[in-house]
Amino acid sequence: MKNLEFYNAVDRSISASINNESMGHGLLLEVAELSVQRNRKNLLQGLHFQVRAGEFVAVIGANGAGKSTLVRAVTGEWDATGKIKVFGRNLASWTRKELAKRMAVMSQKTHLDFSFTSQQVVEMGRLPHTHFSASHNSNVAREVLKSLTLTEYADRALTSLSGGEAQKVQFARAVTQLSGVKEPTLLILDEPTAALDLAQQKVILDATRHSCQSNNAVLAVLHDLNQVALYADRVLVLRNGRLIFDAPTAQALTPPILSEAYGVNIRVEVLTDGRRIILVD
């Protein structure tokens, strides 16, 4: 597709200029030549991208494009080849506890067989921070539950909650893990709003956007392109395990790029206030 090739050429030029000016400054995640192969199948091939402090970076693409695989690779859950640097250091050089003090992950599906209460699950986010007192960590968890309107679920078993309620509790755990950390942090989310109604989606995404303040950043897999338009600063577009576009949101959410990524005709309406609405023709 000629239009797509043109956009990619422009974006590579812009990215090269930015990288030359800011390499090593505010880079929380650096990925180069990232590839993942499982069961003799190439799931990711040669990905290059960076996440900088203050950014909300969304990962989009059709089912099977490699979005969850990307999350599992950059968090070390799955073996990968290439370079992954987190906070300026190779991923392999971090101990799990050391990295957990600054990077929190909310997986697409998290299942607990034991009847932990919501308060207990959220407090698990404080396990990397045992240098604080138990009462301090418990208070941090309670404050996060309150901020996400989850206080009424604090004493309920996670297994008794609906899918959406349990998902919010898992999000609270990830937020609690990074609460009060003075160094730059990275929050990685895999479809954090999949089971939520519209009101709860807004609560989660507002909190996610807020977490990008200061020197922190977010990398989130999102399915709803209209959410991406509202919240993301940059977008990584995956197709068949390859990164086909990496650009600021307004440049990425265009009909040629989205139609290429999803294999259908997509229309983008720009409102008078600059917001974008993505529609399938």
Describe this structure in words.
This protein has 281 residues and is α/β, with parallel strands linked by helices. The protein contains 10 helices and 12 strands. The protein folds into 2 domains: 2-102 and 184-280, Rossmann fold (3-Layer(aba) Sandwich), CATH 3.40.50; 110-180, no CATH class. The two termini are 19 Å apart. The chain is 36% helix and 26% strand. The strands form 3 sheets. Strands 6-7-8-3-9-10 form a 6-stranded mixed sheet, with helices on both faces. Strand 1 and strand 2 (41-52) form a beta hairpin. The chain has helices at residues 2-22, 67-74, 96-100, 118-123, 134-147, 163-178, 198-210, 225-231, 249-252, 255-262, and strands at residues 27-38, 41-52, 56-60, 81-86, 89-90, 103-106, 186-190, 217-221, 234-239, 242-248, 266-270, 276-280. The longest helix has 21 residues, at 2-22. The relative contact order is 0.17. Mean pLDDT is 89; it is low at 1-24. Helix 5 packs across helix 6 (163-178).
Q: What would the average pLDDT be, to the nearest integer?
A: 89
State the distance separating the first and last CA atoms: 19 Å
Q: From the alpha-carbon coordinates, what is the Rg to the nearest angstrom?
A: 19 Å
Q: Which sheet architecture does the biggest sheet show? A: 6 strands, mixed
Question: What share of the residues does DSSP label as strand, in percent?
Answer: 25-35%
* CATH topology description of the largest domain: Rossmann fold
Structural class estimated from helices and strands: alpha/beta
Number of strand elements: 12
- Along the chain, the helix and strand elements come as HEEEHEEHEHHHEHEHEEHHEE
- Shape call: globular
User: What is the domain total for the residues?
Assistant: 2
Task: Write out the CATH superfamily name of the largest domain.
Answer: P-loop containing nucleotide triphosphate hydrolases
Helix content range: 25-40%
Side by side, the strands of the main sheet go: 6-7-8-3-9-10
The count of helical stretches stands at 10
State the low-pLDDT regions, or none: 1-24
